[in-house]
User: Fold these one by one.
Assistant:
Number 1:
Amino acid sequence: MKHGKYPLLAAFLLPALGLYGVFVLAPYAQAFLIAMTDASGLSNRYKFVGLDNFVALFKDEYFRNALWHNALLLVLLPAITILLGLFLASLLNVGGTSKRAVSGLRGSGFYKIIYFVPQVLSVAVIGVLWKEIYNPRSGILNSGLRAVGLDSFAGDNLGNPDMAFWLVLAVMVWANVGFYVVLFGAAMSSIPRDIYEAAALDGTSRWTTLFRITLPLVWDTVQVAWVYLAVIALDGFAIVQIMTRGGPNFSTDVAGQRMYDTAFTDSRFGMASAMGVVLFFFTLSVTLVALRLTKRERIELA
Amino acid sequence: MKFKLHNPFSQGFLVIWGLMTALPLLWVIASAFKDDNEILSDPWGLPGALRFGNFARAWTHASIGEYFLNSVIVLSVSLTLTMFLGATAAYALARYDFWGNRFIYYLFVGGMMFPVFLALVPLFLVVRQLGLLNSLPGLMLVYTAYSLPFTVFFLSAFFRTLPTQVAEAAMIDGAGPFRLFFRVMLPMAKPGLISVGIFNLLGQWNQYIIPVVLVSSDEDKYTLAQGLAALAISEGYRGDYSRLFAGLTLAMLPVLIVYAVFQRQVQSGLTAGQLK
């Protein structure tokens, strides 16, 4: 392998590295530089302003409001999605009892196929779809509520500042749960069946089984899920952009939407880059904290 | 035996979530056949007739066909480029020892941790400097660049697991390093290539943020996801709901068909990324 190693390395690595360098690494590096200027999108002239953008940013109540929504998402999205995912996956994988062995429910393959569907849809499709479902006039949410006599709940939905955030959160949960049902299901299927049989003989309840047996044994996967959902929660830009653009009255605003508007509506590129840098460090620290907090002794199944 | 008592209860929860997932999609497809009056007056009702004209109007008047074609053109290049550059780089990193190997590997893999929107502003500036704003080639290159981290990560893990004996045998038979890669290693890596290919296919097809920023001011260059979102906004004013639902159905259909056919590979391809 020694002979002719470098021509291959050059031919195989340089094109990929070049493209990656220009469109991924360089923008990330430049973000830090642009963040310290007053660059605008309209002219090429700018001056160095040091950390002024960051100081202004932390005084900016709109940005703080947006970050607050990201923080809420950061707690709620992983918690709800993982709990629902674990619950459904445990029903599918350790729900049924056939003869003696504890097995998955009948038709569990079919459920998994259905649950996974939102994962293959574009965020644009999901956003537009739910916007129409929430449509006060023609959506199925309000007409469904009226049909069962809950007329008082059929309101403005995304037009109502008190409701909009929760409705967007619900969509994010809807879009992600199925994926984690499949992911947790794969982890659960590697748990030896005799553990469950022993628990069943001891008369352990479903909840105790889930929290005392299943959860510790799939903890690794839960940890990974938490990190990925945290990154999704800190983003949230695409779904918000499509469904509400941060409104009404900034009630669904997220940092990504603020950054987008600052850059491409207000043409304040320096400030928008500073927002990107702040979010970069948020994402980095949240990832590290999530990994640290969820760290546990790994249980080996020999 | 205790669990058996809970079965109707568990089955109930599973059915409820199944309906929560499936009903919205079925509703969109049903609404695509309705006329505006049916959509507004009876959201839960079935269409009175199968109005295929809605689809024709969405395809031509609402430019869904044009957006669709743009997405296909972009992906046909970006997906090929992603797979080629990703596989070659992954192979070099997985199979060759050289100075800086680990550094380059982590440079690529580190990109997986950060979503694209963090570098959106400078990315816009870089693409503008290169004169690639509002162009499909610009999208092709950017899609490829942002697909490389996962592709390199996944495929280098895959190349590492391939047996060395086959490679050695081919070398003894006189195959050069390039021939070895294209004729021996690449065919052996086919299962890995298919998984990561499906992952990238769906990821790039569904990409929304990148085109919204890079192709914002030329509607003729919109991709499908982007065009659909734009359509949803304009239909809100115009009130042509049936056309919007038909467009939504047309946008969902290709991925749903891919998913229905390659269901197993799609699930394993998309979950593999998170388990490693």
Number 2:
Amino acid sequence: MTRNRFIDLPLAAVAMLVYVSLYLPILLIFLLSFFSMRRGKVNWDTFSLSWYAKLLENDALGGALWNSLLVGSLAVTAAAAFATSAAILVRSRPDSHSARLLEYVIFLPFLLPPIITGLSLLIYFREAGVGRGILTITVGHTLFVSAIIYRIVLTRLNALSRNLVEAALDLGATRIQTFRFIILPNLRMPLLTGGLLAFALSFDETMITLFLSGTDATLPVRLYAMMRVGFTPTINALVTLILGFSILLTVAVALAWRRNADSARMTSGEGRT
Amino acid sequence: MDAPDTDSRHEVAGDRTPLLRIRGLGVRFQDFEAIRPLDLDVLNGEFLTVLGPSGSGKTTLLRTIAGFQQPTAGRIEFDGRDIADVPINRRPFNTVFQDYALFPHLTVRENVAFGLRVRGIARATRDARVEDALGIVELEDLGDRYPAQLSGGQQQRTALARAMICEPRLILLDEPLAALDATLRRQMQKFLKVVQRRSGITFVFVTHDQSEAITVSDRICVMRSGSIEQIGTPRDLYYRPRSRFVAAFFGASNILEPCRIESTGEDTTMVSTPFGTIRVDGPPPRVREGLALAVRPEALVPAAGDACNRIECEVVSVSFVGSETITELEHSRTRHVLTMKTRSDPSTRQPVVGSRLEVGFDAAACALVKGARE
């Protein structure tokens, strides 16, 4: 197919339009966190970090950030343990009905509208008499991100020879030694990749968290609350910081993903010299 | 299939004690009988090959011995002790897997050391034994490589060293050469044989390749649809097959049937076949019904005036395949087909297609076997 200028140009224009409409608002927020704006024009002389300074003064935000990091770490740890056990179970008996069922149960919270997950958990916790707080948010996030880690871990397990476990047992290893020396080392990269991805999801999660947070708000929930009171330029600074952190996480995930793929290739023996 | 079992038992005995006694062992998957109850003795220090086409139950038999598969009937005794309740990781044998199952995140050295590591052997002892094992399989220089950086043959030798490190009494090998190319396969066959001889470890080796089985084995156990068809030395199976199946599997592709015994003597039997009456040397057959006569293609010789069995044929086709020439013949009267394999020789003329040819074979070069109807 030869390239046609009459098609290429309009295509490029559409692509540009998409990118501009996607990224211009973000760019604007980024600029507004440093500069002030008058009559639709950025005033370049007004560079200041005052909005960031204001953020530091705001203790509630510091608490929210801490909550986000805490919930993220707890949820990723719990989800990793749960998803890994589930993946090993499903891998060991791929044809059983209960394994299929387990898989559905893991994927469901990820596919359900977050508002449903959030609402049902809220009702459940209320009936069970569990007060809303870090614990309830962590449970919600664990349910939500388990599917991600499960999928990545299972993909790697499927690439490993099923005989590895038999070989380890055959050589005299106990079940626990087999897990510790053979399975776990091969899951290091998938767990890192899945964990980072799950952390990024947990860090951004708003809808489920809204239902489950009492006074312990996470960063997105705090941001949401701030906007209801009134739109202040501190929000721009906060959004810019969250954005920066999310970009860092995304880059980390991308790098981990590449190393994960490399080690998977080693595992399946394609990298043979 | 009933007659030969009594006989295979007495072959098994002798002065060597069995390391492994398998009695009435059966494996059933729902409604599929993978192994029909069978008896097998594995002698101490022998190289026993379990040979059979795919689906014959040979790998299931190996996996049951290793402990990966639970038998549904019978028992396995090791050194006179029933091992039904011994879990995989406590059985005194090790396995070489078809895909080697090397641990991808460990180096060659760490792979080989694994069996010692999980047993808590001290590092100094461990290192020395690993170096010894690497020396045996000639991998001293590749100890720090990862499995993915090895060739197929090197991976194979790593798997062997790993299985030998704990000094098992028995090593089970599940088609370990299947993934290698023909040249490497032949090298590895010799290598396995040498390692087995030197170490004195009993090998139970599974393959579907009869020429491989003949090359490496002390004894061969031929399996077919979950049962043992015949056990014996490679020469036994090659020259004295007991069934049409074993005969064909070992290349005796000329099966003359139906056969009827005309008379039996001390050491010869006269058999009437579609090709006429044939003299067969050897002890008289134990059964007289349902027999077939197996003749190896290389036993046939053209224009053999002095051979005791002669058949008048017509040449159907001649193919020159290098060191050998393969001639398809048709019996002049009954149109039955025979195959003759002769050494190619530049000085003699090839048979002409369509011409008449009298072929002969020796009375010792054929075997009476169980026929198709069993």
Number 3:
Amino acid sequence: MMYILEKKKVEQVLSAWNKAFDVYAPQKVENYTQFLPFEKTKTVALNHAHNTRYPPKALFFPQSEIMLKYNSRLGRFEESGSKTKPMLIFGVRPCDAMAFSLMDTVFLSEDYVDPYWKAKREDSIVIGFGCSTPPQTCFCTTVGGAPFSHTGLDAILTDLDKAFSVQVLTNKAENLFKNLPPATEDQINEVKKIQRKATESMAPAFQTSGLKQKLDLIFESPYWETIAESCLGCGICTYLCPTCFCFDIVDEIQRKERIRNWDTCMFRIYSQEASGHNPRPSNKERTRQRLMHKYSYWLDHIGEIGCTGCGRCVCYCPVGLDIRAMLQTASEYESEVARA
Amino acid sequence: MHDNGHNPYKPMPMHVVRAYYESNDRSLKTLELVFDRKADQIEFFEKFNPGQFCQLSIFGKGEAPFGVASAAWEGDFVRFTIQKLGSFTQYAHTLQAGDPIGMRGPLGNGFPLEAWKGKTLVIIGGGCAFSTLYALTKHVHHPQNRPDYDQLIVVYGARTSGLCMYKHDIQSWHQRDDMQIHQAIDVPEEDWSHHVGYVPDVVKEVAPSPKNAVAIVCGPPIMTKFTLPVLVELGFSPESIFTSLEKRMKCGIGKCGRCNIGSKYICKDGPVFSLKELQELPDDI
């Protein structure tokens, strides 16, 4: 079912939802937008052709999260965290919603369920915001997504200038929108046109067929050294990545809390062992781990690429390393070796 | 799966029941832990098999993974031998009988004991990595388990006699007629009546037959590296050689990301792998 939500009514609708949900929506912060708790006085920033800088994964998997509180060093502890209302996230780009589904396979895997992710994620509602004009850094269509992909979403908005169309995708979203006027046939056709145009505007960014096999093959090759030469190892590509899920567990002694923090395979200490040995001693091994994880190991695990093409790592790399170029070079690497 | 009340990050409350030094230089200390809650104990022993590890947890110091060094039949305790290296292990060495501690586990796959039934076990260990092999040997020693396996051959090397762990017990193994024990130290010492030399050389000398046998190798990387070719030369196939790996770990349940080799997580898919499995993984150890 498709409904029409007038743009001037967005804040009013979100305010109404705030009673039953903790509503999050992208809002302007300095030069960027970020998912923040929605309040009546705030304006929702859905008018830019760009994504939030900080990925919405943080709503389910905060950058720093208390796991347990304890009383004394060896003493007893209590579990942390109790939320009152389910979360409703409004305006999530399809790449980030697809990332939620990928992260579910890690945190909700059958053998061990992560209770912190589950508590926030299981009754949440995700309203997507499709991308009519995908920026140059985006490459979702190359990695199995689309600017109007439905994966991980309960409903998806399309920008119709003065209003949004709302395609309802799940039953739990139906209740939220059923009082809105339905879309006319003209509007439905307009939405289809916008969505098709957006998808067609995105050319393949690199060669994905046979890429995994190629990466596995060149694991030992000097290819990785050439990348590592320009990488600063700052880790911003992993911090802003919507699918990076690695975390560290540390005890905050003064606060008497066991917390988990986002961690990154781009740091030396991430894999540093107590004996002094480090299996990934330089940027070469660490960059390789980052790319191999997304484009080989994820495929081994669930048969899908662990990258949704959001382009944040492309936008925010301080030295302009572009994962698309790195992967294209990798896919062509063997022939260069043969020539040498 | 052990979810300890649906939160696998929640340590089980435990107490130290015995704590003693294992080596004369006091770098190795053994802690034997008992459960505060009967339900935890029952659940643990339902799941435990040798080769698995646990995360020991000390609030304020964090957590670190240690291989279990006891067999289930030994009693209602869980044994760990801890080398003093960083701030966690430094603190762990100060623990005494009666002190509380947290534990998560058992974690990891453990040794494939079912698949090894009927076979000769060649157990090769060096240094403090012998702890899980000690658990394996103890498991096999039990009169109910011993008939499940053919010969039992143990090679255990340490740098010095003072660093040999579980001394009194292993001393008694020399008198057993259901096993062979070959102990070695790196350099000669007075009153040492066993092998002198490095583990790979001792294995070469002992020359266990690969016939209907599996070899289990745990030790420092350098020992493992030089022992594997010896076994291959003796005729052991990659499918019949096993080792247990270590890496920096945090969660122990395949979430936090850091202990992978290729697409395998050591904490969840390992720590025990056959050489064949390792050969199929990238060199990221």
Number 4:
Amino acid sequence: MIFKRPPLPHEGDLRLDPEVRAGIDARRAQPFSVEAMVAQMRDGTRSVAGRVLVFVITLAAAVICTLPFLFLSGAELGVTLSAFLNGSLGSQFAFAETLVQMIPLLIAGMAVAISFHGGLFNMGVEGQLIFGGLVAGIIGAEVEAPPLILSVLVLLGGVAGGALAALVPALLKAYRGVHEVVTTIMMNFVATYFAIYAVAPAGPFVAATQPSATEKIPRDARLPTIWDGTRLHAGVIIALVAVLGLWWLLYRTPLGFRIRLMGKNAGAARASGVSVKRTIITTLLISGGFGGLAGAVQVLGVYGRFFDAFSAGYGWDAIAVALLAALSPFALIISAFFFAMLDSGAVQMQAVAGVSREMVGVVSGLVVAFVAIQPWLLHGLDRMRARRRTRREAGAPVTLTDTGDAT
Amino acid sequence: MSDFFTIALFASALHLAVPIILPMLGGLLCERSGVINIGLEGMMLGGAFGAVAFSYVTGNPWLGLLGAVGTGLLSGVILATMSVLLRGDQVIGATAINLVGAGLTAALVPIIWGIDGTTPSVPKVPTPELPFVGQIPLVGPLLAELSAIDLVAFALVGAVWWVLMRTDMGLRLRACGESAAAADAAGIDVTRVRFIAVTLSGVLAALGGAYLSIVTLDLFQASMTQGRGFLALAAMVFGKWRVGPAFLVCLGFGLADAIALRAQIFTHDLPHDLLFALPYVLALVALATFVGRATGPADVGKPFRRA
């Protein structure tokens, strides 16, 4: 198979949107001007530089908005910063711990990303993660099999569990038209309470010696540690392979094309012969599968058993991870690593600088907020640029006329 | 069985329903005006925290309630700015409210009180007993368990229904949710109507949170709402975006909660953790079977922009 893409449009032969044309011109003329950067950001989905710019600006805005609360808690900026860097990157151990934190965030972030690609809001990743972890823990504790086969079974069981938790919202969305936001959120609670029940003192899968947990998975079947002296386990390889797989699925397979087409325009997808119902179900099941995989990897790699409070809200932070990465599979690695740094640095920040760990949640919330208003920000920057241009062309200051709003 | 289904059970069902009813009303107003609001949970937490903080600072629980209204206004205005004024994605904006609401309230507790997790007790809103209602036949004993504040909450249900279905204002609001373009053509300022509806939903949700923190209890605890904002959302969908049915669903959820709590005391062989999941399972089953196609207002979720 040969993958050959058509060359990118050059000037002249293609009709280009005037805004895009202006952006290209600005970038050619003065690559480091404000105009060029704004154009870069607006075309963010197309160029790597634009994406990096959007990523950095979103993150910076969120962190700056968190600063007042840092001062409120009486922390000094320098101390906080050094505690954060020490705690997340300062030593071999800290770095490995950051990577350990990154694994569930990355896999769960992929779950969110693929559903958003399909225009579906899977808010139930937390529940899928818990259910996947539960199924993984049960299989690991109950099934007798050679170690390697058992690990594979546990991981597959996690994927199946996550997909099962996503099945109900998927069917309801496809056949009853119920908005998936509400149903996936409801499934979060069903999964959480079911998991608590399963390992409750009288529950069916509780360990004999440890309440609120399943029996331990045999040590040989767990994911091996790949960095001696730290907790870093082979899950990081699984996560990175999954990133490749997600990219391949989204951009190199017909199914991925259908998913993205449905996300951009469900009507157009239907008109061109895509079964939207089937694509909705497939997308949500894959998304749930990723969520379940995140739980299974956590169970198999870190704890060696399922216990009812094993997720520190990874499913929710995953939304911020996916949105910060603008849903791009490879950018997910960077954004998951950043949030993992926050998670592992938070311990040190609390101990040394007295900053509450909950601030991590605030930062991820603010990231989500800034992503929500990104279209407006880009639009506003565009308008500013248009106004400047008019001013320059007219040679005189312009009054506040609405230039680019009436589109 | 008869000592299980007592007046106390139904009274506690009503008490447990109130903090679901208030955010449900807020969510309903918001969605009927065309804005998805899954941020109710975060708004409730903000209200619960605001109420306790103000009650602690001023020593007056009524000012605490006022503080909850203030935080509700704040969270409502922030969401309205994001999703109505700036036309950002409504689901993403509301998710941000949830994340920031949960994180910030939990982070502010150690800043104000110096301890993690749960705050010390603060003055709580007095719940005066109602005079004379005990003598009413049949429902008297049940009503006697309620306080004036519960009645205000129930009265709000009627008020919201009346405003939404029987006034000019309500018609305008519903028009914005069904077809923003048509409403705009008819001379309604869609942006303003939606802005006000979202802000109001923030206030109602915050009052629901405040009911939990300084009426039922007298303290704030990190993520103390335990998903009631989402339950309110489920009730609204279950009730097909109509005030009456959604109110009944809320009462049902309250009863389910009360039964689960009571079962915990009465029996040990019942899986009460599963009972807590019951409202959600019921809602999902209902959506799958007899509710029919649950479709909300036609223009819900679509940012509006004048052509």
